[in-house]
Structure formats: structure tokens, C-alpha cells
Design goal:
With 185 residues, this protein is an all-alpha fold. It contains eight helices and no strands. The chain has one domain. It is elongated and about 105 Å long.
């Protein structure tokens, strides 16, 4: 798998190794016990924001918890799709896994940014640091993904350069090797 692994793919694998188990566990806890798990460390900022600023009743808080769990599971699903695509060499060479990684990064960044802003509003410094760290990891990989060229395009450009170099060598024939026409007239 390491033969055609680009920097953004490697970074995406590391992010998937963190986000898939962590966010899956958080989301399943929120599905089983929405109110109790909504007030745990990783969700406390959203819970305080929902209760303090939105003034939702218990059913509204449960729905907000389930919506957050659904968003996290969606990001986890796209990270999983990215890993499946990356495991196939034909898809890895063409860079087809980048779309799934990009969607996972976008959804994860949105959730982490919203959590960070809500933590700032309610004054939860530990939750703000957690969400800011997650957001920086996601944004760092997104920047690398945007800056890095697709793998197939790089291979095509390298092959084109080699072909041009070969043609230049073939066209650069010295004077001794040029065919001479005999004028027997």
C-alpha cells in the first residue's frame, strides 16, 4: 500500500485512525443515552449552548443530541469509505479516494468549528481546546489535500517529460550521423 501513498492520503489515514473509533463511540453513547452523554466532556459545550441559548425542552435536547450524533456518524462513514477506496490500488493510483476524504474533512471541520464556537460562548476552555485541536488536524489535512496534485496527473506529467526528453535526444542527431545524398550527376 505504500507504493502510491501520497502525503494527503497518509494524513487522511491517520485522521481516520483517530476519528473513526472516537466519534463512533461518542455517537453510539449519544444514541443510547442522549441526555447523559450530551453532558460529557466532548459534547458539553454543545449541550450548554443548546440549553442556555436555545432554551430547548427535553425532547428538543434529545433531538439536538441525535442530530450531532448523526453528523459525527456521517463523517465517520466518509472516513471509512476513504479507507476502503484507499485499500484498492487502482483507486489509490487515480486519487479517487480524495472525494470521500474531502467530504469527511468538510463535515468534521464544520462540527468541530461549531463545537469550538459554542465552547467559546459558554466558557468551556477544555472543550474549546478539544474542538480547536480537532479542527486544526482536519484543516491541516484539508490544506495538504488542496495543495497536492492528484497522483495520476503527476504520473502523466512525469511520463510526458520523459517522452519529450527522448524525442529531443532522437532529434538531436550530430552532423556525422546525418544521411548524405550523393549527387552523381
Amino acid at each position: 500500500m505504500s507504493t502510491n501513498l501520497r502525503l494527503s492520503s497518509f494524513s487522511g489515514v491517520l485522521l481516520a485512525a483517530y476519528f473513526i473509533p472516537t466519534w463512533t463511540l461518542i455517537a453510539f453513547r449519544m444514541m443510547v443515552s442522549p441526555i447523559h452523554s450530551f453532558y460529557e466532556q466532548q459534547n458539553i459545550a454543545v449541550a450548554f449552548f443548546v440549553s442556555d441559548y436555545l432554551h430547548l425542552a427535553a425532547t428538543g435536547t434529545v433531538r439536538a443530541a441525535w442530530l450531532l450524533a448523526l453528523g459525527r456518524l456521517t463523517a465517520v462513514a466518509f472516513f471509512t469509505i476513504f479507507l476502503v477506496f484507499l485499500s484498492r490500488p487502482s483507486l489509490r493510483r487515480t486519487g479517487s479516494a480524495d472525494e470521500a476524504l474531502g467530504i469527511a474533512l468538510a463535515i468534521g471541520s464544520l462540527i468541530s468549528f461549531a463545537g469550538m464556537m459554542m465552547a467559546s460562548q459558554v466558557g468551556e476552555t477544555a472543550a474549546r481546546q478539544l474542538h480547536a485541536t480537532e479542527l486544526l488536524m482536519l484543516l491541516g489535512t484539508a490544506i495538504v489535500l488542496l495543495v497536492e496534485r492528484p497522483a495520476q496527473q503527476q504520473a502523466d506529467q512525469n511520463a510526458a517529460r520523459r517522452n519529450v526528453a527522448r524525442q529531443d535526444v532522437a532529434n538531436d542527431v550530430s552532423g556525422l550521423e546525418q544521411p548524405q545524398l550523393l549527387n552523381n550527376g
